[in-house]
């Protein structure tokens, strides 16, 4: 067997620097595409596409003409269907590409403390709140449904936003790093079927947004004064102040550039007792 270096030189024989650059750029684009979809519903579809492509390739290799013709036709139509189905994600991806660098996406420890303090106070007073923290998926289209702001995250400001009778208390607030960028926003509602049918609209809006994006969405229940995190389409358990800080630290505020989003678990934190998040909850509403 030839040594690895000579194997590499044989493989690269005839390659020009331009070809290497070409391959590196394609690898970079694929990696960036992966970063955009990981943590969103698109990742499951991506897996489905890979299985589909695998079967198609096998059909081609094995010369199964009818199957390969059929899959080829479905693939062409499926491509258009995907564009329609994932229009929000595609828009978000383009928005991300066009986003100017150097904008304040950094999140400091002070912001974390202020956010957690505001959540605790809102929960103590049973004031309902809904806060989405942007990570890789831009939340611009949801921010556009509310009132645009540009304010530093501070506990008094967040409390004032959600105070009863405050003009922007209805709807969700969006944070980008240490900035509050919008309030009074409309988030996409989880359909309220299956596990989450017993929840009210605030919680279902949190779950819905976390299903479509990789945002970390915090909810304070007006009814129970509980604090929870919705992530990747699932609602986590009730948290106390230190658990909330711990979760925020690991999900969002570890690094100033929000890089830890890459380490996001596929599902929200498990119940403290190790029970699954879904189904472990007492009904949030009397309608259960
Ligand atoms: N699609 C949405 N996007 C953002 N906020 C929403 C949305 N739908 C409802 N809300 C917010 O949720 C509030 C209603 O909460 P509701 O009582 O129905 O929910 P809940 O999940 O039972 O929460 P709580 O435990 O706080 O009562 C609305 O006043 C509004 O502020």
TrEMBL record:
GO MF annotations in UniProt: adenylate cyclase activity; ATP binding; diadenylate cyclase activity
Transmembrane segments: 20-38, 45-62
Keyword Transmembrane applies: yes
Region Disordered: start-end pairs: 256-288
Keyword Transferase: yes
GO biological process, one term: cAMP biosynthetic process
PROSITE patterns reported for this sequence: DAC (PS51794)
Pfam families assigned to the protein according to its UniProt record, in alphabetical order: CdaA_N, DAC
EC code: 2.7.7.85
Signal peptide: none
UniProt xrefs under PANTHER family: DIADENYLATE CYCLASE (PTHR34185)
HAMAP family membership: DacA (MF_01499)
Alphabetical list of NCBIfam families matching this protein: diadenylate cyclase CdaA (TIGR00159)
Oligomer status and interactors: Probably a homodimer.
Protein's recorded name: Diadenylate cyclase
Source organism phylogeny: Bacteria, Thermotogati, Deinococcota, Deinococci, Deinococcales
Gene name as annotated: dacA
